[in-house]
Design goal:
Layout (H helix, E strand, L loop, with lengths): L26 E8 L9 E3 L7 E5 L3 H4 L6 E5 L10 E9 L6 E9 L5 E8 L7 E2 L13 E5 L15 E2 L6 E8 L18 E10 L8 E13 L15 E2 L7 E4 L8 E7 L4 E6 L3 E3 L6 E9 L2 E10 L1
Antiparallel strand pairs: 1-13, 2-5, 3-4, 4-13, 5-12, 6-11, 6-13, 7-8, 7-10, 7-12, 9-11, 14-15, 15-18, 16-17, 16-19, 19-20
């Protein structure tokens, strides 16, 4: 019996570890820049507090206006020092429908070291729960799927509350990046176990302080950019579908052998009966057993990171 098999080419983009960074950059595809000189972008969700700390526009603080940073941004008050017992935020909505989005931002801070600072967090459930970008899902330096950072605080740079944060006084203006890395077929030695497969990610910038009164500037952020890159690895797009070898097919005992694939742990196999009813799903294996099922025609689909890659027919005679 003839079998119809469809496939796509999976390609590899190698990481760029230059200058100590861990972001996986691809070829520029699309980006959105969030400016703060006028009305707030629809990508920004402001704090709902009655007297929000974050204000956008022109700064009047000398610390923020020095160096080459500029005078526009979103900051912890444009005129006054940050208050005591602050816990205020703004959220950036990040489109995660493309592969491995990257958020870049320029910023500067002046706080009471360990008592006040800026925290970067993310949510995969529209703000119901939050995680620090240096928390359990962080994958810096591991070749693993997860949250990657460059120019961020270390997990050991903590406030007295134990939360990793930007604290103290920055050495001039800082360029920081956060990537939600979930879809490249690269070699991985560890795994964070974090599932980043959601269409929208919330990235939250939160400023906190304790009861100590200070006369410091706080935190200013400007020129936030969301990058969507193409990870084609320089490999040409195939002109016709690729096949996936399965043998024997037909099988007289219900045992089928699938060809080996690179990065097999990232694939799954689904098997359906001729009526289109799913029989089972399993991690990719070179052995698929239909010995417990009756003779007949079956369909299979192989997916990579939830993306369909191959499909075809299995005949048990």
């Amino acid at each position: 019996m003839n079998k119809i098999i469809f496939g796509i080419l999976l390609t590899i983009a190698m990481p760029n570890f230059c200058n100590g960074q861990f972001i996986f950059d691809g070829s520029p595809l699309d980006s959105s820049t969030v400016a703060f000189s006028g009305s707030l972008s629809p990508l920004i969700i402001p704090d709902t507090a009655a007297s929000p700390l974050w204000q956008a526009g022109l700064t009047h603080k000398a610390f923020f206006a020095t160096d080459t940073f500029g005078t526009n941004g979103i900051m912890t008050d444009k005129v006054n020092q940050y208050p005591v017992n602050a816990n205020n935020w703004f959220i950036l909505k990040v489109d995660n429908s493309h592969l491995n989005p990257i958020v870049d931002f320029w910023h500067k801070y002046q706080t009471d070291s360990t008592r006040a600072g800026g925290i970067v967090e993310f949510s995969l459930d529209s703000g119901a729960t939050w995680q620090n970008v240096k928390g359990a899902c962080n994958a810096d330096g591991t070749h693993s799927l997860g949250v990657l950072t460059s120019g961020l605080y270390a997990s050991t740079d903590t406030l007295l509350t134990g939360e990793p944060a930007f604290t103290g006084t920055s050495a001039g203006t800082i360029y920081s990046r956060v990537q939600f890395f979930w879809g490249l077929p690269v070699v991985r030695t560890t795994s964070t176990g974090c599932d980043l497969h959601v269409p929208l990610i919330y990235l939250r910038f939160r400023f906190v302080s304790d009861s100590t009164v200070d006369s410091l500037a706080g935190w200013i952020i400007d020129s936030i950019k969301i990058e969507h890159d193409r990870y084609d690895g320089g490999v040409p797009i195939p002109t016709k579908p690729e096949s996936l070898s399965v043998f024997p097919n037909p099988s007289y005992n219900g045992s089928f052998t699938f060809q080996a694939l690179p990065y097999e742990s990232s694939y799954t196999i689904e098997v359906y009966n001729a009526m289109g009813e799913k029989l089972f799903t399993q991690p990719y294996s070179e052995s698929v057993q239909l010995t417990g099922y009756p003779k007949g025609l079956y369909l299979y689909r192989v997916t990579y990171m939830a993306t369909p890659c191959y499909s075809g027919q299995l005949l048990r005679e």
